[in-house]
Amino acid sequence: MNNPALELQKRRSAALTPGGQQRIDRQHDQGKLTARERITVLLDEDSFVELGQLVRHQSTDFGLEEQRPYGDGVITGYGAIHGRLVYVYSQDFTVFGGSLGRAHASKIVQLQDLALQNGAPIIGISDSGGARIQEGVVSLGGYADIFLRNTLASGVIPQISAILGPCAGGAVYSPAITDLVFMVQGTSYMFVTGPDVVHSVTQEEVSAEELGGATVHAQRSGVAHAVYANDVACLEAIRTVLTYLPQNSEQQPAVKQTPQTSTGNQSSLESLVPQNPNKPYDMHDVIHILVDHHSFTAIHDQFARNLICGFARIGGHSVGIVANQPAHLAGVLDIDASVKGARFVRFCDAFNIPLLTLEDVPGFLPGADQEWRGIIRHGAKLLYAFCEATVPKLTVITRKAYGGAYDVMSSKHIRGDLNYAWPNAEIAVMGAKGAVKILHRSALKNAENPEALEQQFIEDYQEQFSNPYIAAEYGYVDEVIYPHETRERLITGLEMLRNKVLNNPRKKHGNLPL
Ligand code: HXC
Description:
- This protein is α/β, with parallel strands linked by helices.
- It has helices at residues 4-16, 21-29, 35-42, 102-118, 137-153, 173-177, 195-202, 208-212, 214-221, 231-242, 283-290, 335-350, 368-373, 375-388, 403-408, 432-439, 441-446, 450-465, 469-474, 486-496; strands spanning 49-51, 74-81, 84-91, 122-126, 159-163, 166-168, 180-184, 189-191, 226-228, 297-299, 307-314, 317-324, 355-361, 393-402, 418-421, 426-428, 479-480.
- The protein has 20 helices and 17 strands.
- Strands 10, 11, 12, 13, 14, 15, 16 and 17 form an eight-stranded mixed beta sheet that branches. The chain has a seven-stranded mixed beta sheet with strand order 1-2-3-4-5-7-9, sandwiched between helices.
- The N and C termini lie far apart (59 Å).
- The site of hexanoyl-coenzyme A has 15 residues, from α5 and β6.
């Protein structure tokens, strides 16, 4: 090398566009950013430091020795989001279709090790044809190396996946182990076996979009936690989500110091919940009034819409909100809602984010389908998650708290720290109508005017049980509060509980009912 500086410049420059302009143009034509552009959008300006830019594969099979692009199809490094350290890798579809060979995998593995050892979040951007076919089994080994590290890092550092192109075959299991999976409408898809294999095995005709596009994973499978219109929106959402999280499980989420206000008029909460317990209302309205100005970010908002999960700030404190949604299936707990809620509660608990539960739940969804598919096993996940959570737990019963769902939704009995109920709350084994039918079956059967008698029984039951005061007398709610007092109670509660210490018994790990 006659001129070392020139040689470095030449290699660095080649590493910036290793797939060539034509493939970059194709990427743009599809509405996708390049791997490098994605990192620029994701990170604070000029904060990215690249690692392994000059890595190349050493493979000689299938003529690969003729093509040895720098970077091996993935850009890895570290930088900052809102001034805080993060690690990022971004697969480059312009190089071997972003496929994963040995060198590519080693770069990701090195980054995972750094992220875990240094206690900072890692963001993986997937855009890949999967295992590099020419490299065979070493590429499968590379995936396994990544899966192992995803698992070891789970609950220690936040791991976020952006699926911004294909993600197929066993490759899907890396994002699936991470905390959050974000997809983009129209350009991203995930499946274990693609449409051709599906057709050859089951004769089903299904497009890639129908099989594993963003909509299907956001609404049906629950694999995707959120869907965005394009790459930029998705990457900006990752920046936002990270503001609620600490760097790792040893740290607390940052508290916003500037004075925080809510946009909502607190007294409007007084009339928000309808008098008629069978009338729905939108729990999002309650959330938006209670939280700091525009601070709510929903997770899984298109999946199991009968339960709302999301991050927000209240008086500057980061909270994870779990809320029954009376506007969808009356806010009932079913299998999907239980699994969604359980995963979210465990995520918050792992990263020291206090839980706020807003409760208006008529119970678990009855029916043969739910029983046969295992509502017992799945409902138990939500119960288990709330029971084991040691973060500050605040609960507000806005209306119904019936049956087993009363216990599950962060009740006092399972270590709720501050449990409030609004004056119209109904805390009972079941609703009045159902209870009367069981308690007074024979009296109603033999009555001359069963309708009038039933109405009388219902009114008696409501008078006796459909209120929060029996629970308050037992201390199962700490206080019955006017709705307009809620935000203030939550702020002072979060401050009071800031230094909470609660440890579960020592164990290798629990046996969550999977
Ligand atoms: C090597 C690959 C590749 C792969 C794509 N390419 N996938 N090279 N290994 N897995 C290359 C192509 O040869 C092409 O190179 C370039 O990437 C772009 O690919 P195209 O097919 O032109 O792009 P497009 O039409 O957009 O189709 C994208 C695609 C398709 C749907 C992803 O490429 C595809 O089906 N690839 C194979 C997917 C697959 O079956 N992977 C294995 C899955 S199993 P040139 O030089 O022409 O630009 C798996 C197991 C993991 O991953 C197990 C982990 C445990």
